[in-house]
Amino acid sequence: MTPFELAEPATLNEVVSLLDPDDPTVRPIAGGTALMLMMKAGVFRPSKLISLRDVKEMVSIDAKPGGDMTIGAMTPLSALEYSKVVHDHAPVITRTLKTLSNIRVRNVATVGGNLAHGDPHMDLPPVLMALGARVVVTSRTGKREFPVDDLFVGYFETSLRRDELISSLIVPGQGAHSAAYLKCTTRAVHDWPALGVAVSIDRDGDKVRDARIVISAATETPRRLPGAEAALHSGGASEASFRLAGEAAASEAELITDGQGSSAYKKQLVRVYVARALRVALSHDQGSRNRGAP
Questions:
Q1: Poorest-pLDDT segment among 81-85, 140-144, 202-206
Q2: How many structural domains compose the chain?
């Protein structure tokens, strides 16, 4: 690796004051699980890294009175995995983290870094999109908030400006929604997925009141599939409707060929896994109802 300067600010305000909108070689570093690999491979050669590890105000998991859950961007993924607040608010996040990479990575990697990296193979972004989560971004000029859906604009590209930093994440109350995340890997269960599918569904009997279907890994960015959602709305919460949603998803998704498989292979995965994820979400919903959950 080439030499670089390391800054270690203690507050969020100090961090954003060090970001340079005109210099792409100045970069914040959170857990470093991805950035350090890029530096070792020579893909990225920074002139300055701004360490976030001492910014304690960015480490938090809080349930708000209005129903939202806020998560500080420097919160380690392992903290989410074992948090009762997260489990009670959005248990799909807890389930997803069990097979997200390995425990050594989860102990170091952070929520903000996971999102800011922009890798379409990440497990967490499609889940957060299905939950309707929003990111809070901070710069010298203030803060702005927008859906996680709008964060990813291309392969390893985000809508963040060079002088902006993800400071927190907001996951809204899920109400009667039930969610699931499934991934298909070509090797071990914790490996990079060939396809990730996240779904969230709210139903009244056999009627679907609301649904979000998101795929990742097989596409350049995590993508919502409105055609599949429409098929589910029109068909209801039934096995036949789930199959129709899978077919609609396979038809509308723009898939890529990479080391995890061909686009034709992934098309079949989408067809099968969207229907399967909807079944799993429905089973979680039925389990909650059987336990008397509100």
A1: 202-206
A2: 3
What is residue 20's predicted lDDT score, i.e. its pLDDT? 93
Kindly state whether residues 140 and 104 are assigned to the same domain. yes
Report angle CA 27, 48, 160 to the nearest 5 degrees. 15
Of the three residues 124, 143, 171, the one that is the final residue of a domain is 171
> What is the chain's alpha carbon radius of gyration, rounded to the nearest angstrom?
19
114, 213: one domain = no
Residues 165 and 255 in one domain: no
CATH number of the domain within which 266 lies: 3.30.390.50
Instruction: At 127, give phi and psi (nearest 5°).
Output: -65, -45
Contact 120, 217 (CB under 8 A): yes
Among candidates 133, 132, 123, which has minimal Cα distance to 96? 123
Average pLDDT, the chain: 93
Give the residue numbers spanning the domain of 86.
Answer: 58-171
Among 9-13, 248-252, 283-287, 288-292, whose mean pLDDT is lowest?
Answer: 288-292
Cβ 167 vs Cβ 136: under 8 Å? yes
Q: What is the pTM of this model?
A: 0.93
**91 SS3 class:** helix
Question: How do residues 159-178 score in pLDDT, each as one tens digit?
Answer: 999 999 999 999 999 999 99
Asked whether residue 128 falls in the same domain as residue 216, the answer is: no
List the beta strands (DSSP E) in the chain: 5-7, 26-29, 48-51, 61-63, 69-72, 134-139, 142-147, 152-154, 157-158, 165-171, 178-185, 193-204, 207-216, 223-224
